Amino acid sequence: MKKNEKKEQKKALKRKQKACSLKTIRKMKRSDGLTMWHVNAYTMRSVVECTATRYGKYLAMCTYQDENSEVTYRQMESAVKHVGLYLLSQGFQKGDKIALMGEGCPTWMLAYLGITSVGLVAVPILPDFPQKDVLNILAESEAKATVINGKQFEKCLPLVGTGHRFIRLDDLFEIPMDITKVSNRNEFMKAPGTSISAYKPPKGWEKIWADSAPKEEDLASLIFTSGTTGRSKGVLLTHKNLVWNADESSVTFFHVHKKDKVLSFLPLSHVYEFTTAQILGLICGAEIHYLGKPAAPSFLMPALSDIRPVIMMTVPLLIEKVYKSAVKPVFENNKKLQPWLKWSVSRKLISRTAGRKLRLAFGGRLKFLGIGGAPLDPQVEHFLYDANFPYAQGYGLTETSPMICGHGPKNHRLGMLGKVIKGETVQLDNKNAEGVGEVLVKGPNVMQGYYKDDALNKESFTEDGFFRTGDLGVFDKKGWLGLRGRLKTMILGSGGENIYPEVIEALFNSQDFVTESLVVPEDGGLLALVKIDLESYAKSMAIGVSEAKADAAKYIANLKQNINKDLSSYSKISTVKLQEEPFQRTPTLKIKRFLYGRKKEEQKTEQEKGEGPEKKN
């Protein structure tokens, strides 16, 4: 290489370092008035280039107990370029859609960033989706290729030999299009192919790379939700939607530092995990450690001890299970503690002792436990609050990329979810006497709209551009937003009263042996379906499980009487039933309410209409 070329390269590197420095970024003036914190443009390419420039030698991501999976920030940038340039060399053009399906791992992120960094659109698919839903999404999105791991591959078998292209997520190898002989997972994993992350671009690739740079308003993700009615909607999210939300959240809730460890075990196709753990973690220089296996306690607990994460995102279901299995029994079974739990001061001291032990179980370094995806059990939240545990909640939806409001791990208000993120505007529509109204939001986080659904888009936005979330919220005196339920799950009492089933469910869920419950309208009254931990109940009562089933029916009847004492006359439960089978759920673990209660014809109508956006609070 000539001396002049070396000098030019050094100058280019210095310009890049200056452009990606935090000092330069934070002095940038934008016409839209937004303040930038970690990236010099709200695009996935900027995420990659800025982070690689600042944190090049540091570890970016890896899978737990897999040394070969480690990827530094500099290696990430190289792989992303190779993936993007390979896809362009194969004839993919700006706006083309490529599906992405598999459990969280470094290659998932490399594939996503490679796809979106050259103007292509990623279609993340939840790995829990059944084959029928997967094939429908691939057809509706018109995806030209699918990046998929061996575990999920057989869901796409009907597309083998049709010309649909496949890239193996496990090693980022494109398998030749003529794979008609591949008929199962093992054959797919053994099939030869071309490494797209090690692609050697031709001369002049720099111009191809520069010309393919995406713009902030370009589409980055097309995410198909499976609403609680089963109706799937395609959410159109831009680069700016996702990257701005991560960038602004990084200074609103908790300051992540370089080399902070993030433990990731939620699906990356969930925008909650993707934005607040993946993109936010990367722009701050964190290490993302993927669990690599389902979060069963037998595997999760040793991983927590080994990784010792600083940051984790989880869903309420997990932390509620931890509380009910490890904390609640200690409080209830220790007779010496009972007198002290009646007093708030002593209860807090006991809770803080339990909180310190719980934090040690999480590795001892945890500073931020993000809880989202569904409402948190008030009893569990009260314990975390008393225990001074570093939990944080927020509220948002897939359609809002996701964060609308939230709070940090040292700033809590029981029953409230936080202040609205700077740069967004939230209004409450059609408020009642209690100040409760539908949450409307406008800002750089709000989606472009629903894919190929003009009627739904018209219904989902106000004339002045606010997105209708379908959630009922209320502001307190300090500007914190709290939720009171879904607009479409709110039940209208016989006298026109508003009944929020989620509030009643929380009362049931706080009772001994109750794992979950569902309150729905039926025959002019309210039906409560209550699921009991029969094994624990049988053990406590010293009876067999078969006997426990019959006895549990009497137990929940008593619960009904006790809970009705705390409810207003118009919201009392009229019927209670034991729910023996697990509730049917969406992939985001929300119960499919439309399947329970009411009359069958009403259920059918509600399923056809859809229940609105997918909530990620």
- What is the architecture of the domain at 491-583 at the second tier of CATH? 2-Layer Sandwich
Question: Tell me about the biggest sheet?
Answer: 13 strands, mixed
Mean pLDDT across residues:
90
- Cross-sheet strand order for the largest sheet: 2-1-12-11-13-14-15-16-17-22-21-19-18
Name the CATH superfamily classification of the domain at 491-583.
ANL, C-terminal domain
CA(first)-CA(last) distance: 55 Å
Count of β-strands: 27
| Rg on CA atoms, Å | 25 Å
What's the layout of helices and strands?
Elements: H1 3-20, H2 22-25, H3 44-55, E1 59-63, E2 66-72, H4 73-89, E3 97-101, H5 106-116, E4 121-125, H6 131-141, E5 145-148, E6 165-168, E7 173-175, H7 185-190, E8 194-195, H8 205-211, E9 219-226, E10 232-238, H9 239-252, E11 261-264, H10 271-283, E12 287-290, H11 297-307, E13 311-314, H12 316-333, H13 338-341, H14 344-361, E14 368-371, H15 378-386, E15 391-396, E16 403-406, E17 418-420, E18 425-429, E19 437-442, E20 449-450, H16 454-460, E21 467-475, E22 480-486, E23 491-492, E24 498-499, H17 501-509, E25 514-522, E26 525-532, H18 534-541, H19 545-564, E27 575-578, H20 600-609
Parallel strand pairs: 1-12, 3-4, 3-5, 5-6, 11-12, 11-13, 13-14, 14-15, 26-27
Antiparallel strand pairs: 1-2, 6-7, 7-8, 9-10, 10-20, 15-16, 16-17, 17-22, 18-19, 19-21, 21-22, 23-24, 25-26
Helix pairs in contact: 1-3, 3-4, 4-5, 9-10, 18-19
